[in-house]
UniProtKB/TrEMBL annotation:
It is found in: Cytoplasm. The gene is smc. Belongs to the SMC family. One of its GO terms (molecular function) is DNA binding. Homodimer. Residues 523-639 form the SMC hinge domain. SMART domains: SMC_hinge (SM00968). ATP binds at residues 32-39. This is Chromosome partition protein Smc. Its main location: cytoplasm. GO terms for biological process: chromosome condensation; chromosome segregation; DNA replication; sister chromatid cohesion. Residues 167-201, 248-380, 687-770, 806-945 form a coiled coil.
Length: 1188
């Protein structure tokens, strides 16, 4: 297996798709600082699943996406693809090449692909586990990793050795198994809790089940007798109903006869009433006709007066029209004279209009001649203007050239002046650079001294840090143990609350009613008895025993709510339940003289529970006559003393029943719902105390952690100082080389300045010659421009005179045209006035004819009015004769009406007598119907009870009803059965099925507990086997790495000794690893006393020792040889050749010795700022320098 190629697109400084192909052996990647060569190593680390943006040298993961430059836009995603040769199938995938891709979008979404198939991060991690390419592997080694292995704590180094030993996969499996084991332990705890709950329910349910079975036997007998009694009563009701129905038939017959007689009298009376009303109506009609005729006579008299008035008015109008006709003849003579004058005026205006038109035509001809002459002057003036414009342009060009020459002279003279101080400045800077080179060399010596001083301080901090870390570990363990207890208690509390919320232990019927109440389907549901009371833990077992099934009784607001709950259970087939209405349940408390002073007496059970005041009646009903005693012996004494008259419960749940029977035995600690509620409260109390304790531990832990962290910061600060000092040293050395380069550049600059001084003198001479030629040509052009400007002034003068004449003629023409318009308006007005006068003559003639017609019409109207008067006088005489006839007929109708009214009164008296008798019969019918209705209600009540109690119709009840010998004996037996059923108390018929269900569940949970316990044992064995294998493999691999390290150290250092050592050999899987080395001729007690180059060489030797034991398919080395001198760089590079048969190396470097040893060379440049480019180079044609 080896790395074939790497593809980057949009990753960090590689916005464009970039591909690196790798062969076996050594591949070097070179480039200047900041060119992006280390981004290649980051890309490999990222595609293999790195999740820390800090490890990728960024602030957040989105920083790996190319963010854009001044010339390029940012991209929306980054993609890296790793193509690995898998011909040996070492990756467990049946493919010659395995392609691993990771893609990240800027919105945070990401994906992993293996050979094009989308996978999880976990799949990528597991693919490379124990290959050396895992999360803690050694396939990428940078300068920081070198410092880590030398400067880290001993227990932090082991991650690299575990990956090398190949136990990462074992550790992963072990951690997975430990998680599964913890899950199994949680399941065992939950199963035990559930079984504990079930144990407490089995025995009470068995008792309730037996009680329910006894109830069902008694209820069955009660059912048979009750149905028979009801059927007997229905039969009696039927006999009484028949008798009442016969009486109703007789009374109804008489009632109907009276009704018919009354209706006949009513009809006759109504007929007489109708006749009487008809007579009155006829008389009224006659009166209305008389009134109408009288009103018509009055109207006729008024009309005659109007007609006479009209005749007078029309006569006056005839006289008025004759006067208007005479006035019209006088006006017609006056209008004829005005028409003659208007015709003379029109002739005069037409003559003036003709004279003005002839004068306008003459002036327009003169104006056309003057315009033609003006156009000729304009053409000559345009020719002169064109010539002048050409001369003006040439004059401007010459002036610009002359000014440019003067500027060139000034610039050249200025350059010559400025060159002298620049030459002096350059000479001064040359001397200053030499001084700076000497100062930098002194600074390098000071830095070396700083590194040694802070190395000693770092060793002291490391020792103190180890002590603080031990204290921190102890405090952390104590804090974690407390947290574990809290989690365990919270887990128990969660389980109990789940049981409480799901109403575990309650029957299905109770659960369904409570659920209906919560959803609003049933109103007035307050909850169960268990839900409304609170009991101290020491009394909970006694109260649970005292209440028994009563804990499941449902408290409701009133009787209607109870009935609604029963109907709900019947409709839903939800079973049976006991309801306790607050309005009907009123219990009393037991009182026996001297009872409270008896030895062992604790209290009445009702006094040991707490509940809202409104529930007092229910509490007293259930617990008010039950005594709680300390133990069974003292309880027995109390029972004997009071003759076993009441029930006694002991604190441990033993019972002495009224009558002398004893009930008892063992009970689970968490047997009931009250114990469950109390346990939840206790857990909350314990958790609160533990959390308070944990808060104190947390403060202590925070204090120790802060101190440890401060030491860590101090250590990092010292490391930073040392690192910065070494960086400063490298920077100072670079600065010295830069200053030497500056010195060479200043010498070249001095030569260039001297050359520029000579060139300036030549430029001054040529510019002066050009300036003189321009001045001569400017003088000639000035004379030509003066001559042409003089001619143009003469033409302008003539053109002005012509313009004045043209304007004068044009104004005259405008005045004449205005005069013509005014004359035309006067002419039109005169013609219109003439037409009006002529029209007036015709109108007068038409008006005179109209006056004659009006006179004729008025005379005809006067004759018509006279005829109307004669007609109306004749109508009045006829109306008076009709009125006299109508008055006689009114008297006849009134006499007939009085006769009809007398007969009607006689009939109404007979009708009244019959109606009184009918009302007596009606009252009798009401009484009979009421008695019959009551019998029907009794019958319906029995039918309803049959259906509600037993879901039977009357027909079904008849079929199955037993025969009763004596109704009184049956009633007596029925009362006995009801008494026995009441003595049973509350009965839970659901307990029969629930007992079966709980028993089966208990058996199932017991089996589950056995399975989980077995699984736990198997996991513990697997963890033990994995631990043993890991210990053996790690010990063997560590010893081999140690042997390799010893030999490689000697080879690299040319002598000396080295050793890797476990800090705790008895606990190899948790032990830290110490590095003991001694280079030739030195005695080293602490690695920090080694020089930077020696520390790097020690770390390199360790990595080589690991590679020798467990070669990584490929390894990226990022400038790990930066701190080595040239000799050791060459030794390091050549030593790499020993591993190229098993490991492929990608070297990110800028050291010549490493580059010379490479088989393939890639160059990374940044021609465009912020964008990295890749160039593959032929090693044989590259000339190497130290800073290539």
């Amino acid at each position: 297996m080896y790395l074939k190629s790497l593809e980057l697109h949009g990753f960090k400084s590689f916005p464009d798709k970039t591909t690196l192909e790798f062969g076996k052996g050594l591949t070097a990647i070179v480039g200047p600082n900041g060119s992006g060569k280390s981004n290649i190593g980051d890309a490999v680390r990222w595609v293999l699943g790195e999740q820390s943006s800090k490890m990728l040298r960024g602030g957040k993961m989105e920083d790996v996406i190319f963010g854009g430059t001044a010339l390029r836009k940012s991209v929306s995603f980054a993609t890296v693809t790793l193509n690995i040769s898998n011909e040996d199938r070492s990756l467990g995938i049946d493919s010659d090449t395995v392609s691993v891709m990771r893609r990240l979008w800027r919105n945070g979404e990401s994906e992993y692909l293996i050979n094009g198939n989308q996978v999880r991060l976990k799949d990528v991690v597991e693919l490379f586990m124990d290959t050396g390419l895992g999360r803690d592997g050694y396939y990428i080694i940078g300068q920081g990793r070198v410092a880590d292995i030398v400067g880290s704590k001993s227990n932090e180094r082991r991650e690299i050795f575990e990956e090398a030993a190949g136990i990462s996969k074992f550790r992963y499996k072990k951690e997975e198994s430990e998680r599964r084991l913890a899950s199994a332990e949680d399941n065992i705890l939950r199963l035990k809790d559930i079984l504990s709950e079930l144990e407490g329910r089995v025995e009470p349910l068995r008792i309730q089940s037996e009680k329910a079975k006894k109830y069902l036997v008694l209820a069955g007998e009660r059912r048979d007798i009750e149905i028979a009694v009801w059927m007997y009563r229905l039969d009696e009701i039927k006999k009484s109903s028949n008798e009442l129905e016969n009486s109703l038939l007789v009374s109804n017959g008489e009632y109907e006869l009276l009704t018919n007689e009354i209706e006949e009298y009513e009809a006759q009376a109504e007929e007489l009433t109708l006749k009487r009303r008809q007579c009155a109506s006829a008389a009224e009609d006659y009166r209305r006709r008389i009134t109408a005729l009288t009103e018509e006579n009055a109207t006729a008299a008024a009309d005659i007066a109007v007609y006479k008035n009209n005749i007078r008015h029309y006569t006056e109008q005839v006289s008025e029209v004759n006067e208007q006709k005479n006035r019209l003849f006088e006006a017609e003579s006056e209008t004829a004279g005005r028409i003659s004058l208007k015709k003379e005026e029109i002739a005069r205006i037409e003559k003036d209009k003709l004279e003005v038109s002839e004068e306008v035509s003459g002036l327009e001809a003169e104006l056309i001649r003057l315009n033609d002459e003006s156009d000729r002057f304009s053409q000559e003036l345009n020719g002169i203007t064109s010539k002048l414009n050409l001369l003006y342009v040439r004059r401007s060009e010459l002036r610009f050239s002359e000014e440019s020459a003067q500027i060139a002279i000034r610039d050249a003279e200025d350059a010559a002046v400025k060159a002298k101080p620049l030459i002096e400045e350059t000479r001064r800077r040359l001397a200053q650079t030499s001084e700076e080179i000497r100062r930098v060399r002194d600074g390098i010596a000071d830095i070396q001294k700083t590194v040694e001083e802070h190395g000693n301080k770092l060793s002291g901090y490391n020792m103190l840090y180890s002590k603080k870390s031990a204290h921190l570990k102890e405090a952390t363990e104590e804090y974690n143990n407390a947290g574990l207890n809290i989690r365990s208690l919270n887990s128990r509390r969660q389980m109990l609350e789940e049981l409480e919320n799901s109403m575990e232990g309650f029957s299905g019927s109770v659960k369904s009613v409570i659920a209906a109440g919560r959803s609003g389907r049933l109103r007035g549901v307050r909850g169960t008895v268990a839900g409304i009371i609170t009991v101290d833990q020491k009394y909970s077992l006694a109260i649970e025993t005292a209440l028994g099934g009563g804990l499941q009784n449902i408290v409701v607001s009133d009787e209607d709510c109870a009935k609604a709950g029963i109907r709900f259970l019947k409709e839903t087939n939800g079973g049976r339940a006991t309801f306790l209405p607050l309005t009907s349940v009123k219990g009393n408390t037991l009182y026996e003289k001297g009872l409270d002073m008896a030895e062992g007496y604790v209290a009445l059970a009702s006094e040991l529970v707490e509940a809202d005041e409104e529930y007092t009646g229910i509490i007293n009903s259930l617990l008010g006559r039950i005594v709680v005693a300390e133990n069974i012996d003292l309880a027995t004494s109390i029972a004997k003393k009071y003759g076993y008259k009441f029930r006694i419960i002991t604190l441990d749940g033993q019972v002495i029943n009224a009558g002398g029977s004893f009930t008892g035995g063992s009970a689970s600690r968490t047997a009931g719902v009250l114990s469950r509620k109390n346990e939840i409260a206790q857990i909350i109390y314990k958790v609160t105390r533990l959390e308070s304790k944990n808060a104190i531990l947390k403060e202590r832990l925070s204090s120790i952690s802060a101190e440890t962290e401060k030491l860590g910061f101090d250590i990092e600060a010292e490391k930073d100082i040392i690192s910065n000092a070494e960086a400063d040293k490298i920077r100072f050395e670079g600065e010295a080389k830069r200053l030497e380069l500056v010195d060479e550049q200043l010498a070249d600059r001095l030569t260039e300045l001297s050359k520029a001084e000579n060139e300036s003198a030549e430029k001054i001479a040529k510019a002066r010659e050009d300036s003189q030629g321009c001045l001569a040509e400017l003088e000639s052009i000035g004379a030509q421009i003066s001559s042409l400007e003089s001619k143009m002034s003469e033409f302008n003068l003539k053109s002005g005179e012509h313009k004045s004449i043209r304007e004068e003629k044009s104004n005259q023409i405008s005045d004449m045209r205005l005069r013509l318009v005014e004359l035309e308006k006067d002419l039109q007005a005169s013609k219109l006035s003439l037409e009006t006068l002529l029209g007036g003559i015709e109108s007068a003639k038409e008006t005179a004819a109209g006056y004659d017609k009006k006179i004729s019409e008025l005379e005809s109207e006067i004759e018509a009015q006279k005829l109307n008067i004669s007609e109306r006088e004749r109508e009045v005489a006829n109306s008076k004769a009709v009125i006299e006839s109508l008055n006689l007929r009114i008297k006849e109708e009134l006499a007939s009406s009085l006769e009809h009214e007398k007969k009607e009164n006689e009939l109404r008296q007979l009708e009244k007598q019959k109606t009184e008798r009918k009302e007596q019969i009606s009252a009798e019918l009401s009484r009979l119907n009421e008695r019959l209705e009551n019998l029907h209600k009794d019958s319906d009540a029995i039918v309803s009870q049959l259906w509600e109690s037993y879901n039977l119709t009357v027909a079904q009840a008849c079929e199955g009803a037993i025969k009763l010998d004596d109704i009184s004996d049956a009633t007596k037996r029925l009362n006995e059965l009801k008494s026995k059923i009441r003595s049973l108390g509350s009965v839970n018929t659901e307990a029969i099925d629930e007992y079966k269900e709980v028993s089966e569940r208990y058996e199932f949970m017991s089996g589950q507990l056995g399975d989980v316990t077995k699984s736990k044992a198997e996991l513990e064995k697997l963890i033990a086997d994995l631990t043993k294998s890991m210990r053996e493999i790690f010990t063997e691999s560590f010893n081999k790495i140690n042997d390799n390290f010893k030999s490689i150290f000697v080879e690299l250092f040319g002598g000396g000794r080295a050793e890797l050592k476990l800090t705790d050999p008895e606990n190899v899987l948790e032990s830290g690893i110490e590095i003991n080395v001694a280079p030739p001729g030195k005695v080293i007690k602490n690695l920090s006393l080694l020089s930077g180059g020696e520390q790097s060489f020690v770390a390199i030797a360790i990595y080589f020792a690991i590679l020798k034991l467990r070669p990584s398919p490929f390894c990226i080395l990022d400038e790990i040889e930066a701190a080595l001198d040239d000799v050791n760089v060459t030794r390091y590079a050549q030593y790499l050749r020993n591993f190229t048969d098993t490991t492929q190396f990608i070297l990110i470097t800028h050291r010549r010795g490493t580059m010379e040893e490479a088989d393939v060379l890639y160059g990374v440049t940044m021609q465009e700022k912020g964008v990295s480019k890749l160039l593959k180079m032929d090693v044989s044609q590259v000339s190497f320098t130290e800073n290539n």
